[in-house]
Amino acid sequence: MKTDLEHAFDELLDEEDRQQRGYQFQRWLRDVLLRSGFEVHANPRTARPRQTDLYARRDTRDYLIEAKWQRSKIDIADIDALRSRIDRTPSDVIGCIFSLADYSESAIEAVTDRRDREILLFNAEEIQSLARSPALLPDLIDDKRENLRVHARVKFARREKDKIPSEIRLPTSDLRFWSGGSEVDSIRSGVENMDILFSLEHLDPIGNSDDAEFGLRLDLDARHLPELGRALGTLHNHLGLSGAGTFAIHQTEVSWHGAGAANFLTTAASWKARYDASDVESFHHSEELYYVDEFSYGQLLLTARQRVGESVFLHGAEVEIRIGGIPVDREPLRELCRKMGNRDAFLKLCQRKYFDAVGFRYERIPLVPVGTIRSSRFGNDVAVCGIIAKNPFFRKESVLKKAGIKLGAQVEHLRSVEFLCCALKDWHDVDDVADQYYLTDIQSKWLGPVLVVRPACTWKKLVAGPHADLRGGPTLGVSHGRTRTRSKRLRRSSGVR
What we know:
By secondary structure, the protein is an alpha+beta fold. The protein has 11 helices and 24 strands. The protein folds into 3 domains: 148 residues, 3-Layer(aba) Sandwich (Trna Endonuclease, Chain: A, domain 1); 180 residues, no CATH class; 108 residues, no CATH class. The longest helix has 18 residues. It is elongated and about 90 Å long.
């Protein structure tokens, strides 16, 4: 489970006021030093008339410490400013900078070129590791000092490689998003202050919507995306996740939606390319990551926040597992908790499942498709299992009312997202063209902080492709969107794996 320092660090990253955030970071760092066995003084006078954040002492060694949180990289000017402070102190005082922004090459060179007054640099990854284990700090300092003195280099904690190790097996997705005539990793959608996650699977696969449901929450020790990938692989190995997982990445005014664990990690990693391709002028310093999947006896939601900008890392990563009732054999879950470093985790009764469903009359709400979702669930026989459509409710409260959706209902939140990812009740071939799609129903369910939504639709008639009815009559026995058994290639999907 997360330590209080980790929770405080997450709250620190959520602070919007830059000045207040700086003060909180300084206080948080002071707590880390105290728990590492240091004697700490705030705002010391040792470097007068220069002001300094912290002065710390441990094992007869003294440290002058600066806590930095700024948008730009730490550069040579920041190093010179700290050096001017330690030059006013006794010769054995060591300078330290703890920064959540990265360091420029000139800053690192300034540290290695002049080692008569040692300055140790700590990056965001190392700071975050101290939130979980503050006792690591003395050894971290010794390692940095040795590298600076003996090898004349600034050493940072080893960053994880970009690739997930080959032994980690992510769930294989059978879903592909298509738009503009080609396959895409994700679909970009406008959004208004509401985190929506689409699913193509029924949202109540584990029993009646009124049944009791239990939740198991696990904290993930993931600071970078490869670590998150390893966590997903471990969850898949223990639970057997499906091939129908979907994801959403939310910023303030834009979101990205797609399918598959591998696509989820790839899309999250390409945050700069996503932002460059968007017409949004400014972005929040963090984005929300969501991945939902199911397994044989429940559902899983993975959430995390990704810090973007000069320093990129994850925080607040966790997974919530929902199951219907308490399993007879709980040993597999106990083993999963041990494997994920959550030995103290426990099943908790969810008082309500927050599941809702609303249906619509035949052809009442037509949809305008902008893409398709294809499934290879049946091997090489690829079919269209869903569509990406313009949201008829987007910023239109009047349309919600006309559709019979009451104000205050969960589905009302759909008006905040530009596009819908809809499950197709009656699948058709990729070469078939329908004259019209329309909504049939919408399921919604709260999972943790995100509203998971499953809009479902069907089509009226196929007008082009191998199964089109050129005479204008019912197509291959298809009437009112219900596929009959005359076509082997047209299948009706129940949404249950």
